[in-house]
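quick one: pyridoxal-5'-phosphate bound model?
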Amino acid sequence: MKFPIFMDNHSTTPMDPRVLEAMLPYFIEKFGNAASRNHQFGWEAEEAVEAARAQIAKLVHCDAKELVFTSGATESDNLALRGVVEMYKDKGNHVITCMTEHRAVLDTCKALEKRGIAVTSLPVEKDGRVKPEEVRNAITDKTILISVMLANNEIGTIHPIAEIGKIAKEKGILFHCDATQGVGKIPVDVNQLGVDLMSFTAHKIYGPKGVGALYVRKKGPRVRLVPMIDGGGHERGMRSGTLPVPLIVGFGKACELCDQEMPAESKRIAAMRDRLQAQIMGALDECYLNGHPTERLPHNLNISFAYVEGEALLMGVKEIALSSGSACTSATLEPSYVLRALGVGSDLAHSSIRFGLGRFTTDEEVDYTAKRMVAAVTRLREMSPLYEMAKEGIDLKSVQWAAH
Ligand SMILES: *Cc1c(COP(=O)(O)O)cnc(C)c1O
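yep, here:
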């Protein structure tokens, strides 16, 4: 086993060596600008970009011409929300989203609110899913866009996107989906999901960092966007700027590999994830699974360990790269807004750990991680007076704590 062990595949993924191999010729030998129409260098680069575009389109079942290359999912989310709001401002000024979206969507909505856009942020169920009926009830005659993610990056919960897509279609409202965590991990078909715009990125699927895509529906309806970046009119005018050919080639290769390997890979990873869960929860009491038990990404596991601080737990297992449900913001430790939206109490939100398995995770690493987590939680609980009191049957809520 090699240390440290990477169990944080929701934050990013290592690049697949086959992706790097595909990219290498496009740095030095084939360095042309894909927009150069007059010579071999340009033609070669353009051909590589279009081949990659086709590989990416195949994975999400769209037409290659419906893809706009961006710098990543953050930019795709921004372009989708800002671009639609600006283009359709005469039709309305209301956007519907959900409380557990990624910051790339939530912060963009906040910025739009400052410019007079009304935003409804829908709550979620205890399992992290937004109810399609809630979406329907939030729609007004001013609604121009609905934005709900495919799968959550913390708890792995998969939203009922196809059902929401049907409602959006019925009401004639554009539907954007941040599918960053789902693409490449679960089957994604833009028509089956009924989405009009969809964001995703290469670095979460074993591709390079710095390149992503926005799917923009061309037919039924034809979606139009006001661009955020003006320039040479690249990407049908929606995103100007010289295309990063090596990154795009890598993105294409990463999608091709996901397409080929997903059926076997997702089964293998889900089995490892289930074993990790069983080993941890079988050995420890008072552990709680966050998110939906089955409507969940195959590589995600999120557990709260009562009476243990997530940050302290991570310090105890430094040789494993994990993520906790507390975000360090300036001076204070804020519990995850995603877990809070599920109704998880502040204490349990602070005790949560996210495990993100991936293509290169091994059985050995899973067993090691389970063993170390159990040992670290047990040790921390042995030092916890609260845990001891709870074990003795004292109802902690009834305790009269001395005032400071
Ligand atoms: C990682 C992530 C993003 C941001 O993607 P970048 O390519 O890093 O900008 C957006 N949304 C979700 C759900 C993500 O997991």
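The CA atoms of residues 276 and 370 lie 6 Å apart.
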